[in-house]
Amino acid sequence: MKNKLLLMTLSLFLLSCSAVREDTQPEVGSFMVAAWTGGGIAKTEAEWREKLANFSEHGLSDLFLSADIEETIQVVEWAQDYSINIHAWVWTLNRPGDTTAAKNPEWYAVNRNGDNSYDYRAYVNYYQWLSPFSPGARQYVTSKMISYADIPGLTSVHLDYVRYVDVILGADLQPKYDLVQDRQFAEYDYGYHPIAREGFKKLFGVDPMDMEHPELSTEWLQYRLNAVTSLVNEIAQEVHERNKQLSAAVFPFPVMSRQMVRQDWASWDLDVALPMLYHNFYRQNLEWIKFAAEQGVRESHGRFDVVAGLFIPALSPEELQTAAQKAISGGAKGISVFDVGSMTPDHWEVLKNLSKQ
Fold first, then answer.
1. If both were cysteines, with which of 3, 206, 217, 224 could 191 make a disulfide (CB 3.0 to 4.6 Å apart)?
2. What are phi and psi of 38, to 5 degrees?
3. Distance CA 322, CA 328 (A)
């Protein structure tokens, strides 16, 4: 009886798409000039202050930092002296090497072949995905985000890998894995956790595994999309209650995101979305950056800001300037570069000039 009640409750909140809340979060600057970085770029306070001073001098307003809680607390404190907002960049559903999660194999995502993501790692060894249908995984992930949201002075909790395994890779990535993904192959089609299958069958009378082509079912797609959306919105509620913002690194634009990684970010209760407009991954030109930004801005209906993520290894300084302008003309409220380690002095000069807009 207890398990049935849990499944009924889970099914109900999976069908909800967006929580309504009062916008009580602090404002991010009108034009964001940001970067992603890992915590390893500096070790001591002096080294961090040197980095932060340089970032500030070149117009950086925001830094998306991937670091443990202790280091994040320190960097948040130091960054205040340089007027830089710090966002805690945290991997969400992809949790490679997570020793707590590893003790709970039932938390992991399952593909159409029935493979558990802890044991079967699609594409790369660091792909170990938790399932948004597992109550234990959801609670664990949310608790991780709360621990960062409790950091005084933090601007946002920044979600990454908040989706399923890529069912379709970008066109430029497929040859690297000796793949031609002209359809949705079972080993990369995730979301078939037992709780997901049972809940879907309760609603629609059919186990997705019994469908001839479950990957083509719009109901099954939407059901899986809703699972991630409800998780994000639960995290949003916790983060917002702590007077912090919620941001997320997402795939380029909503239609593409739904198809490639089962990610419906236009429905999320975010403050800032950062679509990764890495044009070279998809064999696109710089004009595509404007196109992709426009789609995200339109579908999000002004509910949150869209800040364009740009991939520095694929952009000369001149191309960075063009890409930024394309993103802005598409409605983006700023740019974020990946990552600071790829920046040359000439790239930094471009950011410095952008910050004056």
1. 224
2. -85, 165
3. 10
Q: What CA–CA distances, in Å, run from 195 to 8, 12, 227, 276, 304?
A: 11, 13, 11, 31, 32
pLDDT in tens, 31-73: 999 999 998 899 999 999 999 999 999 999 999 999 999 999 9
Tokens of 244: 């912090």
The whole-angstrom separation of Cα 320 and Cα 317 is 5
Q: How far apart are CA 200 and CA 224, in angstroms?
A: 10
Contacts of 24 (CB under 8 A, 6+ apart): 240, 243
Q: Which amino acid is at 234?
A: E
Omega before 182 within 30 of 0, i.e. cis: no
pTM for the structure as a whole: 0.91
153: left (phi over 0), alpha (psi -120 to 50) or beta: left
Residue type, 111: N
Looking at residue 133, what DSSP letter applies? T
Tokens 């952009």 found at: 315
3-class SS of residue 351: helix
The tokens for 75 are 């960097």
Question: Which stretches within the chain are classed as H helix?
Answer: 2-14, 45-57, 69-79, 99-102, 135-149, 194-204, 218-241, 254-261, 287-300, 317-329, 345-354
Over the stretch 127-150, which tens digit does the pLDDT of each residue have? 999 999 999 999 999 999 999 999
